[in-house]
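User: hey, got a sec? need U3 small nucleolar RNA-associated protein 25 homolog folded
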Amino acid sequence: QSDNSDKSSVESDSETEVEQVSVYHKLLATLKTSPESESEEEEEDESESEAEESEIEMDSEASQETREADGGGEGQNDVPEQEEATDTAEQMLSQEQADGIDTSCDPSHGVTEEFTDVKHESEFSLETNFMEEESGDCNADKRDGNPFKQHMDKELEEKDIEKMSTLPKTSSQSQWPRLGQLTFSSTLEKPKTLKADKEVDVKQLYLHKPLESTWPKVNKQYLSSVNKPSDAFFTPLQRELFCIMNTYRDLFYPERNALTNGEEIRHAYCLHALNHVLKANSQVLSNNAKKRDQKPGTDNDDHRDQGLTRPKVLMIVPFRECALRIVHIFISLLEVNDKRKIDVSNKKRFKGEFGSDPEEKPPNLKRPDDYEAVFAGNIDDHFRIGVAILQRSMRLYAPFYSSDIIIASPLGMRTVIGAEGEKKRDFDFLSSIEVLIIDQADIYLMQNWEHVLHLMKHINLLPLDSHGVDFSRVRMLNLNNWCRYYRQTLLFSALQDPHVNSVFNKHCFNYMGQVAIRNVPLSGSISHVVVQLPHVFRRLEAESSTSVIDTRFQFFIDKVLPEYRDAIMSHTLIYIPSYFDYVRLRNYFKKEELNFTHICEYTKKGGVCRARRFFLKGEKQFLLFTERFHFYKRYTIKGIRNLIFYELPTYSHFYSEICSMMKATDNGVDATWTCTVLYSKYDAQKLAAVVGIERTAQMLQSKKNVHLFVTGES
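Assistant: Yep! Here you go:
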């Protein structure tokens, strides 16, 4: 239980062992909201006078607010300092009934009893049902060129597996009209350059009934009036993404934006996932009928159409609201018309547990548009639910081993998978996943990336139990434990990040190869800074990506901090993306007895109020400020005169947001404003997102410090 065993008081002054990376990982697993803290979250009044801002006023503001949609969910809200944060993920793991079925979590009060729909088991059993004539599309699935059949029927050999395990991938690049720069990589064969379809012939998509007729209606809201009649199915982005998805290649798209293209991307991958499930199930039901009509004693090996367990699609999303939208899309895609509604079991319960009450969110909160888009609806981040689909019916809360699709958060998966040594753990249901969809991967960097890695280590392993499977129907690829080489992974993120790239490069083994979108930012977020400000980028030299953490710390305390110790350099905010670095700096500042205050994702409401007031009035010279607090709160910090980015922000637009906070204090001292940024050659992606690709190339070639002066919206 290394992820969850740290119960120590990491906020105590004397605790230095938290500076170890392994303990940092343990610390991440403790990000759990206590019910008490949710009711006392603070609302920030942007219009209040900073001179008269007081703790009493802030507390009175908080008492008026019932609940703030600040993104913490089960992981990140206004949790207490570590001494009091005892409601940890470890306790969650021990309390969970992690037996391979879904959990119903009360968004307000954490985990409640398990609920599993056992009532409809026989109705949704693949083994005992047969294909209905009117809903069947099995003949269409046999057409030449059907991507599903081509992909799943491909028979790999031992030498192919050995090649994929040992040989490096070869890659090629292509330019597409909407997606831009694509990199195709594969091990088995030289990557074939895919060409973007300018128009879509729906017959060539091999969509299963009823998707051909329902998709245009469901997707109509995203289509513009300029779309040609022959292209009345997809937006330009959807067309190119689905073209790749439908070839069953892995896909990494790092330009997902919750404000602009998030929903059209969601619709595209929901279409692909549902199409896959309907085709797989129709194949099973069709073969059921053939076996039923088969003469006794006839041994036919042509009916291998299943995995070792039933779940075929795993969809990882950050919040319950995302799961709600996905299920609504599925229902819309399955309903041919108003007269032919599909039967959805447990729909009312699902709406109650995954929906949200609009009155819960105070109407007077002022947050950026992208914040509102990401944290819309129910933002609880601990959930999992099984979905079974059979012809014209959908079963929500299906037991995992009777589900076709599992929709879950990383934390929801982590608590059911468990850790080595735990009595109650299960991951057999992940053994035959054929399509893995990870949406909004960047948000998991703000939650707990360890949960994602834990999931990837437990997917497509041989099950420990047979779970009643008919081995005569199991595909040879599953019996050979080769499912990982057939699994398609679709990865969507708002940014390029080494952690996300690593999952795509090291945990995806699809024999069809990978497609990654690799566009470079021409202009960075620095152009959106709205204040005139000198930006000094100070380069530090590190021998490796692992040593850069210690090198940055030493560079900061030796070269940067001495310049800010003088009292004249007051009102200095230090922005720190990593919580590990934050703890290390805080301990150092305490040891050196510097005049500072600090705000992190664990700081109580009262502590945040005091820290902001002390910093604004100049009573504290330094403010240590974590990125995750900014991600989940997005408060405007007033009184900043000097800004230090200890490391470049994960989200590039946070750079311009933090810099632009300086205008919140209009006291005519803008001539003394400073901004210092620490970076190394290992920060190339983050640096390009801030200053643009051309400046990044120049800065990485030169070993000198770089001075930039931005004159607002340049």
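Quick note: The first helix runs from residue 21 to 28. Let me know if you need anything else on U3 small nucleolar RNA-associated protein 25 homolog.
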